Amino acid sequence: MSNFSQTVNQDLSLSEESLQIDYLSGSNLLSNSLDGQDVILGLTQTPKTLPARYFYNQRGSELFEQICELPEYYPTRTEAQILQQYAQEIAQMTGACELVELGSGSSTKTRLLLDAYQALGSKFRYVPIDVSGEILVESARQLRQDYPKLDIQGLVGTYTQAMEKLTPSSFPSRLIFFLGSSLGNFSSQDCDRFFSQIKAALDAGEYFLLGVDLQKPKHLLEAAYNDSQGVTAQFNLNMLEHLNQRFAGNFDPKLFEHWAFYNEEFNQIEMHLRSLQSQTVCLEALNLKIKFEAGETIRTEISRKFDKDEMKQQLQAQGLKPLTVWTDPKQWFGLFLAQKSEVN
Ligand SMILES: C[S@@+](CC[C@H](N)C(=O)[O-])C[C@H]1O[C@@H](n2cnc3c(N)ncnc32)[C@H](O)[C@@H]1O
Asked: What is the pTM assigned to this prediction?
Protein backbone atom coordinates (compact mmCIF):
# COMPACT_ATOMS: atom_id res chain seq x y z
CA MET A 1 0.00 0.00 0.00
CA SER A 2 1.91 2.92 1.25
CA ASN A 3 5.57 3.48 1.68
CA PHE A 4 6.04 4.83 5.21
CA SER A 5 9.62 5.88 5.34
CA GLN A 6 9.42 6.95 8.97
CA THR A 7 7.19 4.61 10.82
CA VAL A 8 7.55 2.70 14.04
CA ASN A 9 5.92 -0.61 14.80
CA GLN A 10 4.61 -1.04 18.31
CA ASP A 11 4.75 -4.28 20.22
CA LEU A 12 1.72 -5.87 18.67
CA SER A 13 3.02 -9.23 17.53
CA LEU A 14 2.85 -7.75 14.08
CA SER A 15 5.01 -10.29 12.39
CA GLU A 16 2.19 -11.32 10.05
CA GLU A 17 2.17 -9.29 6.90
CA SER A 18 -1.59 -8.95 6.93
CA LEU A 19 -1.75 -7.07 10.26
CA GLN A 20 0.37 -4.01 10.69
CA ILE A 21 -0.05 -0.83 12.69
CA ASP A 22 2.29 2.04 11.90
CA TYR A 23 2.78 5.10 14.08
CA LEU A 24 3.38 8.02 11.80
CA SER A 25 6.46 9.84 12.84
CA GLY A 26 5.97 13.52 13.43
CA SER A 27 2.67 12.76 15.14
CA ASN A 28 4.74 12.46 18.35
CA LEU A 29 2.23 9.98 19.60
CA LEU A 30 4.80 7.61 20.96
CA SER A 31 5.34 9.74 24.03
CA ASN A 32 3.50 12.40 25.94
CA SER A 33 5.01 15.05 23.76
CA LEU A 34 2.42 16.09 21.19
CA ASP A 35 3.96 19.38 20.30
CA GLY A 36 0.85 21.26 21.41
CA GLN A 37 1.16 24.30 19.17
CA ASP A 38 -2.56 24.00 18.46
CA VAL A 39 -3.26 24.05 22.22
CA ILE A 40 -1.16 27.18 22.70
CA LEU A 41 -2.89 28.86 19.78
CA GLY A 42 -6.39 27.91 20.97
CA LEU A 43 -5.92 28.88 24.60
CA THR A 44 -4.25 32.22 23.92
CA GLN A 45 -6.95 33.51 21.57
CA THR A 46 -10.29 35.11 22.47
CA PRO A 47 -12.64 33.32 22.78
CA LYS A 48 -10.61 30.29 23.85
CA THR A 49 -10.89 27.07 21.83
CA LEU A 50 -9.34 23.60 21.77
CA PRO A 51 -9.21 21.10 18.88
CA ALA A 52 -11.76 18.27 19.22
CA ARG A 53 -9.07 15.65 18.73
CA TYR A 54 -7.93 16.20 22.35
CA PHE A 55 -11.11 14.43 23.47
CA TYR A 56 -9.50 11.16 22.51
CA ASN A 57 -7.13 9.64 25.02
CA GLN A 58 -8.01 6.10 26.14
CA ARG A 59 -10.65 7.32 28.61
CA GLY A 60 -12.09 9.69 25.98
CA SER A 61 -12.45 6.87 23.47
CA GLU A 62 -14.18 4.71 26.11
CA LEU A 63 -16.57 7.55 26.98
CA PHE A 64 -17.33 8.10 23.30
CA GLU A 65 -18.32 4.43 23.02
CA GLN A 66 -20.71 4.95 25.96
CA ILE A 67 -22.15 8.06 24.30
CA CYS A 68 -22.95 5.98 21.21
CA GLU A 69 -25.21 3.77 23.37
CA LEU A 70 -27.15 6.62 25.01
CA PRO A 71 -30.88 6.85 24.26
CA GLU A 72 -30.57 10.57 23.37
CA TYR A 73 -27.59 10.10 21.05
CA TYR A 74 -29.30 9.10 17.80
CA PRO A 75 -26.42 9.59 15.27
CA THR A 76 -24.58 6.30 15.77
CA ARG A 77 -27.59 4.03 15.65
CA THR A 78 -29.16 5.96 12.77
CA GLU A 79 -26.00 5.75 10.66
CA ALA A 80 -25.67 2.06 11.57
CA GLN A 81 -29.24 1.43 10.35
CA ILE A 82 -28.42 3.08 7.03
CA LEU A 83 -25.24 1.04 6.67
CA GLN A 84 -27.10 -2.11 7.60
CA GLN A 85 -29.51 -1.50 4.78
CA TYR A 86 -27.10 -0.30 2.09
CA ALA A 87 -23.63 -1.76 2.78
CA GLN A 88 -24.13 -4.43 0.16
CA GLU A 89 -25.10 -1.86 -2.45
CA ILE A 90 -22.02 0.21 -1.55
CA ALA A 91 -19.75 -2.82 -1.94
CA GLN A 92 -21.32 -3.68 -5.28
CA MET A 93 -20.99 -0.12 -6.56
CA THR A 94 -17.31 0.22 -5.65
CA GLY A 95 -16.08 -3.35 -6.26
CA ALA A 96 -12.82 -4.74 -4.89
CA CYS A 97 -11.29 -2.07 -2.76
CA GLU A 98 -8.77 -0.77 -0.35
CA LEU A 99 -11.01 0.53 2.44
CA VAL A 100 -9.42 3.50 4.17
CA GLU A 101 -11.30 4.70 7.26
CA LEU A 102 -10.56 8.11 8.77
CA GLY A 103 -11.16 8.31 12.53
CA SER A 104 -11.96 4.59 12.75
CA GLY A 105 -12.38 4.51 16.55
CA SER A 106 -13.82 1.15 17.62
CA SER A 107 -14.56 0.21 13.95
CA THR A 108 -17.96 -1.06 15.10
CA LYS A 109 -20.09 0.25 12.22
CA THR A 110 -17.24 -0.65 9.87
CA ARG A 111 -18.07 -4.30 10.41
CA LEU A 112 -21.22 -3.83 8.35
CA LEU A 113 -19.04 -2.74 5.42
CA LEU A 114 -16.45 -5.48 6.03
CA ASP A 115 -19.20 -8.10 5.95
CA ALA A 116 -20.54 -6.71 2.69
CA TYR A 117 -17.09 -6.66 1.02
CA GLN A 118 -16.38 -10.14 2.31
CA ALA A 119 -19.64 -11.33 0.74
CA LEU A 120 -18.48 -9.96 -2.63
CA GLY A 121 -15.76 -12.59 -2.54
CA SER A 122 -12.95 -10.46 -3.99
CA LYS A 123 -9.82 -9.44 -2.10
CA PHE A 124 -9.91 -6.23 -0.09
CA ARG A 125 -7.87 -4.50 2.58
CA TYR A 126 -8.83 -2.41 5.61
CA VAL A 127 -6.75 0.66 6.51
CA PRO A 128 -8.02 2.17 9.80
CA ILE A 129 -6.60 5.60 10.69
CA ASP A 130 -6.96 7.17 14.11
CA VAL A 131 -5.09 9.67 16.24
CA SER A 132 -5.77 7.50 19.29
CA GLY A 133 -3.32 4.58 19.17
CA GLU A 134 -5.00 2.80 22.08
CA ILE A 135 -8.38 2.38 20.43
CA LEU A 136 -6.91 1.61 17.01
CA VAL A 137 -4.74 -1.20 18.41
CA GLU A 138 -7.58 -2.61 20.49
CA SER A 139 -10.06 -2.63 17.61
CA ALA A 140 -7.47 -4.12 15.22
CA ARG A 141 -6.95 -6.96 17.72
CA GLN A 142 -10.68 -7.59 17.92
CA LEU A 143 -11.14 -7.44 14.15
CA ARG A 144 -8.27 -9.89 13.81
CA GLN A 145 -10.12 -12.38 16.00
CA ASP A 146 -13.42 -11.98 14.21
CA TYR A 147 -12.05 -11.71 10.65
CA PRO A 148 -8.94 -13.95 10.70
CA LYS A 149 -8.21 -13.48 7.01
CA LEU A 150 -8.67 -9.72 6.90
CA ASP A 151 -5.66 -7.72 5.73
CA ILE A 152 -5.39 -4.77 8.21
CA GLN A 153 -2.84 -1.99 7.71
CA GLY A 154 -3.57 0.61 10.42
CA LEU A 155 -2.08 4.06 10.79
CA VAL A 156 -1.87 6.03 14.02
CA GLY A 157 -1.79 9.72 13.23
CA THR A 158 -3.97 12.62 12.21
CA TYR A 159 -6.16 12.60 9.09
CA THR A 160 -3.77 14.98 7.38
CA GLN A 161 -0.64 13.04 8.24
CA ALA A 162 -2.20 9.77 7.11
CA MET A 163 -3.62 11.08 3.85
CA GLU A 164 -0.28 12.60 2.93
CA LYS A 165 1.28 9.16 3.30
CA LEU A 166 -1.19 7.26 1.14
CA THR A 167 0.28 6.25 -2.20
CA PRO A 168 -1.80 4.84 -5.10
CA SER A 169 -3.56 1.66 -4.10
CA SER A 170 -2.55 -1.71 -5.52
CA PHE A 171 -6.23 -2.66 -5.42
CA PRO A 172 -8.56 -2.04 -8.35
CA SER A 173 -10.06 0.84 -6.38
CA ARG A 174 -9.90 2.77 -3.11
CA LEU A 175 -12.78 3.86 -0.89
CA ILE A 176 -11.99 6.48 1.74
CA PHE A 177 -14.72 6.67 4.33
CA PHE A 178 -15.44 9.12 7.11
CA LEU A 179 -18.33 8.18 9.38
CA GLY A 180 -19.91 9.47 12.57
CA SER A 181 -20.39 13.03 11.27
CA SER A 182 -16.84 13.89 12.33
CA LEU A 183 -16.86 16.28 9.37
CA GLY A 184 -19.14 18.45 11.51
CA ASN A 185 -16.14 19.27 13.73
CA PHE A 186 -14.58 21.25 10.86
CA SER A 187 -15.32 24.84 9.98
CA SER A 188 -16.57 25.36 6.44
CA GLN A 189 -13.07 26.44 5.37
CA ASP A 190 -11.44 23.38 6.98
CA CYS A 191 -14.08 21.25 5.27
CA ASP A 192 -12.94 22.46 1.85
CA ARG A 193 -9.30 21.82 2.77
CA PHE A 194 -10.22 18.35 3.98
CA PHE A 195 -12.10 17.53 0.76
CA SER A 196 -9.11 18.56 -1.33
CA GLN A 197 -6.91 16.25 0.77
CA ILE A 198 -9.39 13.44 0.13
CA LYS A 199 -9.32 14.19 -3.56
CA ALA A 200 -5.52 14.14 -3.60
CA ALA A 201 -5.54 10.72 -1.95
CA LEU A 202 -7.84 9.26 -4.62
CA ASP A 203 -7.29 8.45 -8.28
CA ALA A 204 -9.96 9.50 -10.75
CA GLY A 205 -12.92 7.12 -10.47
CA GLU A 206 -12.18 6.14 -6.84
CA TYR A 207 -14.67 6.67 -4.03
CA PHE A 208 -15.43 8.69 -0.91
CA LEU A 209 -18.16 7.65 1.55
CA LEU A 210 -19.25 10.30 4.04
CA GLY A 211 -21.70 10.05 6.93
CA VAL A 212 -23.08 13.36 8.24
CA ASP A 213 -25.71 14.49 10.68
CA LEU A 214 -28.54 16.46 9.04
CA GLN A 215 -30.39 19.52 10.35
CA LYS A 216 -33.31 18.80 12.68
CA PRO A 217 -35.25 20.48 15.50
CA LYS A 218 -33.15 22.14 18.19
CA HIS A 219 -34.60 20.18 21.12
CA LEU A 220 -33.52 16.85 19.59
CA LEU A 221 -30.01 18.16 18.99
CA GLU A 222 -29.59 19.71 22.41
CA ALA A 223 -30.83 16.55 24.14
CA ALA A 224 -28.23 14.50 22.25
CA TYR A 225 -25.36 16.61 23.66
CA ASN A 226 -26.79 17.03 27.18
CA ASP A 227 -27.68 13.45 28.06
CA SER A 228 -29.46 12.72 31.32
CA GLN A 229 -26.69 10.39 32.58
CA GLY A 230 -24.04 13.09 32.19
CA VAL A 231 -21.73 10.97 30.01
CA THR A 232 -21.24 13.77 27.46
CA ALA A 233 -20.30 16.10 30.32
CA GLN A 234 -17.66 13.59 31.50
CA PHE A 235 -16.41 13.26 27.92
CA ASN A 236 -16.06 17.02 27.61
CA LEU A 237 -14.35 17.45 31.01
CA ASN A 238 -11.99 14.57 30.25
CA MET A 239 -10.29 16.80 27.70
CA LEU A 240 -8.77 18.70 30.64
CA GLU A 241 -7.40 15.46 32.14
CA HIS A 242 -5.97 14.62 28.73
CA LEU A 243 -4.20 17.99 28.54
CA ASN A 244 -2.88 17.46 32.09
CA GLN A 245 -1.44 14.07 31.07
CA ARG A 246 0.07 15.28 27.82
CA PHE A 247 1.44 18.62 28.91
CA ALA A 248 2.06 18.33 32.66
CA GLY A 249 -0.95 20.50 33.42
CA ASN A 250 -2.89 21.35 36.56
CA PHE A 251 -6.44 21.82 35.24
CA ASP A 252 -8.90 20.90 37.98
CA PRO A 253 -11.96 19.51 36.12
CA LYS A 254 -14.11 20.21 39.21
CA LEU A 255 -13.59 23.91 38.58
CA PHE A 256 -15.20 23.70 35.10
CA GLU A 257 -18.65 22.68 33.86
CA HIS A 258 -19.99 21.23 30.63
CA TRP A 259 -22.11 23.53 28.44
CA ALA A 260 -23.63 22.52 25.09
CA PHE A 261 -26.19 24.36 22.96
CA TYR A 262 -27.40 24.62 19.37
CA ASN A 263 -26.27 27.79 17.62
CA GLU A 264 -29.03 28.25 15.04
CA GLU A 265 -27.23 31.00 13.18
CA PHE A 266 -24.44 28.61 12.19
CA ASN A 267 -26.40 25.33 12.33
CA GLN A 268 -23.98 23.91 14.84
CA ILE A 269 -23.91 22.38 18.28
CA GLU A 270 -21.21 24.03 20.36
CA MET A 271 -19.63 22.31 23.33
CA HIS A 272 -17.83 24.45 25.84
CA LEU A 273 -16.14 24.09 29.23
CA ARG A 274 -17.08 26.95 31.51
CA SER A 275 -14.76 28.10 34.29
CA LEU A 276 -16.65 28.21 37.61
CA GLN A 277 -14.31 30.81 39.11
CA SER A 278 -11.47 33.08 38.13
CA GLN A 279 -8.34 30.97 38.05
CA THR A 280 -4.94 30.51 36.44
CA VAL A 281 -3.98 27.13 35.00
CA CYS A 282 -0.52 26.04 33.94
CA LEU A 283 0.56 23.59 31.22
CA GLU A 284 4.18 23.21 32.21
CA ALA A 285 5.38 21.26 29.18
CA LEU A 286 4.11 24.06 26.95
CA ASN A 287 5.41 26.79 29.21
CA LEU A 288 1.89 28.19 29.18
CA LYS A 289 -0.14 29.96 31.87
CA ILE A 290 -3.81 30.50 31.09
CA LYS A 291 -6.01 32.96 32.97
CA PHE A 292 -9.76 32.41 33.19
CA GLU A 293 -12.42 34.84 34.35
CA ALA A 294 -15.34 33.31 36.26
CA GLY A 295 -17.85 32.18 33.61
CA GLU A 296 -15.33 32.28 30.75
CA THR A 297 -15.48 29.30 28.40
CA ILE A 298 -13.26 27.18 26.18
CA ARG A 299 -15.06 25.97 23.05
CA THR A 300 -14.05 22.32 22.73
CA GLU A 301 -16.19 21.27 19.76
CA ILE A 302 -18.42 22.45 17.01
CA SER A 303 -20.66 19.82 15.49
CA ARG A 304 -22.16 21.25 12.34
CA LYS A 305 -25.49 19.94 11.07
CA PHE A 306 -25.80 19.74 7.32
CA ASP A 307 -28.33 20.21 4.56
CA LYS A 308 -28.46 17.30 2.13
CA ASP A 309 -28.55 19.36 -1.07
CA GLU A 310 -25.88 21.78 0.09
CA MET A 311 -23.58 18.89 0.93
CA LYS A 312 -24.11 17.41 -2.54
CA GLN A 313 -23.20 20.76 -4.09
CA GLN A 314 -20.13 21.13 -1.88
CA LEU A 315 -18.86 17.67 -2.81
CA GLN A 316 -19.49 18.35 -6.49
CA ALA A 317 -17.68 21.70 -6.28
CA GLN A 318 -14.66 19.92 -4.79
CA GLY A 319 -14.46 17.43 -7.66
CA LEU A 320 -16.11 14.64 -5.68
CA LYS A 321 -19.19 13.79 -7.71
CA PRO A 322 -22.08 12.59 -5.53
CA LEU A 323 -23.46 9.28 -6.83
CA THR A 324 -26.04 8.42 -4.19
CA VAL A 325 -27.31 9.70 -0.85
CA TRP A 326 -28.93 7.27 1.52
CA THR A 327 -30.89 8.44 4.55
CA ASP A 328 -33.10 6.99 7.28
CA PRO A 329 -36.91 7.34 7.19
CA LYS A 330 -36.79 10.49 9.40
CA GLN A 331 -34.02 12.02 7.26
CA TRP A 332 -31.89 12.58 10.36
CA PHE A 333 -28.62 11.32 8.94
CA GLY A 334 -27.12 11.18 5.45
CA LEU A 335 -24.63 8.76 3.90
CA PHE A 336 -23.11 10.15 0.71
CA LEU A 337 -21.19 8.09 -1.84
CA ALA A 338 -19.09 10.28 -4.14
CA GLN A 339 -16.59 9.52 -6.87
CA LYS A 340 -13.52 11.50 -7.78
CA SER A 341 -14.24 13.14 -11.13
CA GLU A 342 -12.10 12.32 -14.16
CA VAL A 343 -11.56 15.98 -14.96
CA ASN A 344 -11.13 18.65 -12.31
C1 LIG B 1 -16.52 10.77 16.91
S2 LIG B 1 -15.37 9.46 16.90
C3 LIG B 1 -16.03 8.51 15.55
C4 LIG B 1 -15.60 7.06 15.59
C5 LIG B 1 -16.22 6.21 14.48
N6 LIG B 1 -15.75 6.61 13.16
C7 LIG B 1 -17.73 6.32 14.52
O8 LIG B 1 -18.31 6.76 13.53
O9 LIG B 1 -18.31 5.91 15.53
C10 LIG B 1 -13.98 10.22 16.14
C11 LIG B 1 -12.73 9.34 16.02
O12 LIG B 1 -11.78 10.06 15.23
C13 LIG B 1 -10.54 10.13 15.90
N14 LIG B 1 -9.98 11.45 15.58
C15 LIG B 1 -10.40 12.67 16.02
N16 LIG B 1 -9.69 13.65 15.46
C17 LIG B 1 -8.78 13.05 14.64
C18 LIG B 1 -7.77 13.54 13.77
N19 LIG B 1 -7.55 14.84 13.62
N20 LIG B 1 -7.05 12.64 13.06
C21 LIG B 1 -7.27 11.29 13.20
N22 LIG B 1 -8.22 10.78 14.01
C23 LIG B 1 -8.96 11.64 14.71
C24 LIG B 1 -10.84 9.94 17.37
O25 LIG B 1 -9.75 9.38 18.08
C26 LIG B 1 -12.07 9.03 17.34
O27 LIG B 1 -11.72 7.67 17.41
From this structure: 0.92
